[in-house]
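$ ./design --mode recover --in tokens.txt
reading tokens...
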């Protein structure tokens, strides 16, 4: 950093942690956190949230809980973002008891109405039009805090909702975000190209936006409209569009997996590694095949898991496939942090 003329201070190192996390370089993100002490930079609340987000992306329950506990022990009330990250972690690990307990903690928070409202919204208590106004009030209030906080706020809420299976509610929250000027690059539509740009999102938000985008194209065809010549999902922007390593970025992997489940016609083109595309002829086959289905990608709210819900066998198999990667990450980060 120094050789590039970037000072090593708290703000720059916080940005480094987030950049590494977004690029899937989780060990490097933790190294940047450890290095803060070496350059005598005290972490702030934003730093601790960034580190928690790294553990959230990897899906490490114990490390996430320890980080969450550390925030509390510093006398800081964990933000709504921290609670949403913990909910996402518990959902990924099928810790439904813990997720319910955390939502109850948000609901009974006596010092923050925002925590109460978001906690109840996640469970579906405010879905009707009358009560949803309370959610809109919270969103309006946070809108005045600026774009940076807004992006973090909606990314974490969408991550929690998607992981908890509250996909219809996630689409509604995404709509509220775009109404308030966030993600202005998200959707672009003309006769030649329909694009969804999710490069600033987390996996949950990216999957939500991509699902809405697919359903909109299907609705266009059903209503007699003409499909675009090219559909493209933008998962990476800038210089990294030239590198094939972007396929391993968390958002890239999540969106590519979702689109591949719809059709194998979606692919990374040779001319750009930051986009996933599908041509008009292939789109017609995809949507014509599912013409009898109301939405090609169902956006519904799963019944919220009650305490004691067991992990379905299919999910156990999926979770076990990432065990080796998580163990490797855990071992390496323990070695790094042991010297702090």
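writing sequence...
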């Amino acid at each position: 950093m120094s050789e590039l003329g970037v000072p090593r201070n708290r703000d720059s190192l916080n940005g480094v942690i987030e950049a590494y996390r977004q690029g899937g370089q989780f060990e490097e993100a933790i190294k940047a956190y450890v290095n803060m002490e070496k350059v005598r930079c005290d972490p702030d609340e934003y730093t601790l949230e960034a580190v928690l987000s790294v553990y959230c992306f990897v899906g490490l329950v114990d490390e996430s809980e320890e980080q969450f506990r550390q925030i509390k022990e510093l006398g800081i009330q964990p933000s709504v973002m921290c609670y949403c990250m913990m909910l996402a972690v518990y959902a990924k690990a099928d810790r439904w008891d813990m997720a319910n307990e955390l939502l109850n903690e948000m609901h009974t928070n006596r010092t923050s109405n925002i925590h109460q409202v978001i906690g109840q919204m996640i469970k579906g208590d405010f879905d009707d039009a009358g009560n949803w106004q309370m959610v809109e009030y919270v969103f309006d209030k946070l809108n005045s805090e600026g774009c940076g906080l807004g992006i973090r706020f909606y990314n974490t809420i969408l991550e929690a909702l998607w992981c908890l299976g509250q996909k219809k509610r996630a689409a509604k929250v995404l709509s509220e975000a775009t109404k308030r000027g966030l993600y202005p690059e998200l959707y672009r539509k003309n006769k030649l190209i329909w694009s969804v740009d999710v490069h600033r999102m987390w996996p949950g938000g990216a999957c939500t936006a991509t699902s809405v985008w697919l359903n909109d194209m299907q609705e266009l065809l059903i209503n007699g409209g003409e499909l675009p010549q090219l559909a493209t999902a933008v998962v990476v922007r800038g210089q990294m569009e030239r590198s094939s390593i972007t396929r391993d970025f968390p958002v890239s992997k999540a969106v590519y997996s979702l689109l591949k489940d719809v059709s194998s016609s979606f692919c990374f083109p040779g001319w750009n590694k930051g986009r996933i595309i599908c041509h008009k002829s292939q789109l017609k086959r995809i949507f014509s095949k599912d013409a009898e289905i109301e939405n090609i990608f169902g956006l519904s709210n799963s019944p919220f898991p009650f305490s004691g819900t067991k992990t379905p066998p299919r999910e156990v198999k999926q979770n076990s496939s990432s065990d080796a990667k998580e163990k490797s990450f855990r071992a390496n980060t323990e070695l790094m942090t042991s010297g702090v």
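exit 0
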